[in-house]
Amino acid sequence: MLAKRIIPCLDIRDGKTVKGIKFVDIREVGDPVELGAAYALQGADELVFLDITASHEGRKTFVQLVKRIALHLNIPFTVGGGISEPGDIEALLSAGADKVSINSAAIGNPELIDRMAMNFGSQFVVVAIDALEENGKWTAYINGGRIPTDKELFTWAKEAENRGAGEILFTSMNHDGTKNGFACSAIAKLSDMLSIPVIASGGAGTMEHFKDVFTTGKADAGLAASIFHYNEISIPQLKAYLHAEGISVRI
C-alpha cells in the first residue's frame, strides 16, 4: 500500500502566506520560505504553494519566490496560480518546482492539460478543482472561488484525467477553513472513479479528520493550512496518530 501523504498548503498573496475561511476573510500568517522549510523539517511529504492573486506582474514575483523556496526545500513542492500557457509552466519548473497546478486556465482551455502532459509529462500536471455543493450538485468555480462555471466536479475531474492530469487536487469550498472535516463522500466518489491520485483539501480541523479522509474518503493525500500555520496540530504528532490507527504514512 502506498503511504498516505500529508501536504501543508501555503496560499501566497504579495509574497506572504495568507489564509481565509471559505475563500474570504484573508489573513497574513507568515513568510512562505520560512514556513515551507519548517514544514519540511517536521516531516511534510510535499508542499503546495498557490499564488491566489496572480497577475501578469505578480507572475514574475512568484517565479523569484519559487527560486527562493527551492533553495530551502528537500521535499517535492507544487506551485499554482495564474498559469495560462506553457511558458508559465516552463518558468516555474525551471525555477525549481516539482509539479504545477492549474485550475481556472484549465477550465477556460481544457486542451492546456493535454499540452502540459504532452510537453512535460503527466507526473508534473496537477489539476486543481475548487467546487461548491448546492442542492446536491458540485459546481466548479474559477478565479479563486469567485466565479461559478458550467463544469460539474465529477465529470470535469474525469475529463481532466482523460486529458493527462497526473493528480486531482479537490477543494470543497463548503468546508474550506471551517475545520469541521473533509467532504469525505465526494472525495470517496472521486477516488473510486479515478485511477490517478486524489488530494483532499478543505475542512481539516482534527487528526481524526485525516483518518476519516484516508479511510472513508479513500484519499491519497490530505492537504491543510490553518491547523499547521497556527500550530494546532504538528506533522509528527499527526503522523504518529495515523500510524497508530493503522494508516500507512512515512514516519
Write the SSE topology.
Elements (H helix, E strand, L loop, with lengths): L4 E9 L2 E6 L2 E7 L1 H11 L4 E5 L4 H16 L5 E4 L5 H10 L3 E4 L1 H5 L2 H10 L4 E10 L2 E6 L4 E6 H11 L3 E6 L11 H10 L4 E4 L5 H9 L5 E4 L1 H4 L5 H10 L7
Parallel strand pairs: 1-4, 1-12, 4-5, 5-6, 6-7, 7-10, 10-11, 11-12
Antiparallel strand pairs: 1-2, 2-3, 7-8, 8-9
Give a nutshell description of this structure.
With 251 residues, the chain is an alpha/beta fold. Helix content is 38%, strand content 28%.
Describe the protein in words.
- With 251 residues, the chain is α/β, with parallel strands linked by helices.
- The chain has one domain (5-244): TIM Barrel.
- 45% of the residues are buried.
- It is 38% helix and 28% strand.
- It has helices at 32-42, 56-71, 86-95, 104-108, 111-120, 153-163, 184-193, 207-215, 226-229, 235-244, and strands spanning 5-13, 16-21, 24-30, 47-51, 77-80, 99-102, 125-134, 137-142, 147-152, 167-172, 198-201, 221-224.
- It is built from ten helices and twelve strands.
- The radius of gyration is 16 Å and the shape is globular.
Oligomer: single chain
Shape: globular
**Class in CATH?**
Alpha Beta
- Major β-sheet annotation: 8 strands, parallel, barrel
At the fold tier of CATH, the topology name is TIM Barrel
Under the CATH scheme, which architecture would be assigned? Alpha-Beta Barrel
What is the structural class? alpha/beta
Helix content: 25-40%
**Spatial order of the strands in the main sheet?**
1-4-5-6-7-10-11-12
The CATH superfamily is Aldolase class I
The amount of beta strand, in percent, is 25-35%
Kindly, what is the distance between the CA atoms of the first and last residues, rounded to a whole number of angstroms?
15 Å
Computed Rg: 16 Å
Annotation, overall tally of beta strands: 12
Q: Which ranges are low-confidence, i.e. pLDDT below 50, for 5 or more consecutive residues?
A: none
Instruction: Estimate the mean pLDDT confidence.
Output: 92
The succession of helices and strands, N to C, reads EEEHEHEHEHHEEEHEHEHEHH
Question: How many alpha or pi helices?
Answer: 10
The total number of structural domains is 1
